[in-house]
Amino acid sequence: MDARLNLLASPAVGKAAKHFISLNKLLKESSLPSSTQELVALRVSQINGCAPCIDIHTKEAAAAGETQLRLNLVAAWREATVFTEDERAALEVAEQGTRVADAAEGVSDEAWARAVKHYDEEALTALVILVAFMNTVNRMNIITRQQTAGDYQPGQFH
Fold it and tell me: Where is the Carboxymuconolactone decarboxylase-like domain (predicted)?
């Protein structure tokens, strides 16, 4: 599958895209644990069906020490016993924030309250930005076919 458009080719748009992508680096510096960030990025990408992003975040999480069992169970996190309560809260916010078209209220008050129990304001802000960022990146990849799945090497975009 060939890319439909090179988002970095236009000087103006390319500059905006580079700034946008640099947001991911800033998120890594937040108080939201990096392992939670990878699980959230993976789950959002699974929901959106973005194969390149699933490839990236599965491999990045594994390279950072995430177990294959947990990676295999992200899609079934509600039923799996391998996730902590704080990870569950983040995954719930990520799912509800991604499936906004499926639920009139978006992220429920109950889901938000569970997240507030586990994360400070900085981590919550990072979580919200990460969910929005991943949804945007997924859509950009799906629309323009910037990347294909399978060839990503951990650290490739760092």
Answer: 23-96
Q: Each residue of 6-25: b (16+ CB within 10 Å) or e?
A: ebeeeeeeeeebeeeeeebe
The answer to whether residue 117 is domain-embedded is: yes
Tell me if the pTM is above 0.85: yes
Residue 12 lies in a domain: no
Using pLDDT thresholds of 50, 70 and 90, give the confidence band for residue 20: confident
DSSP H helical ranges for the chain: 11-28, 34-48, 51-63, 68-73, 85-98, 109-118, 121-144
Domain count for the chain, please give it. Answer: 1
- What are 78-91's pLDDT values in tens digits? 999 999 999 999 99
Residues 85/39/27/33 CA torsion (nearest 10 deg)? 40
Distance of CA 109 to the CA centre of its chain: 21
- Give residue-wise pLDDT tens across range 3-16: 666 766 777 777 77
Per the domain annotation, does 72 fall within a domain?
Answer: yes
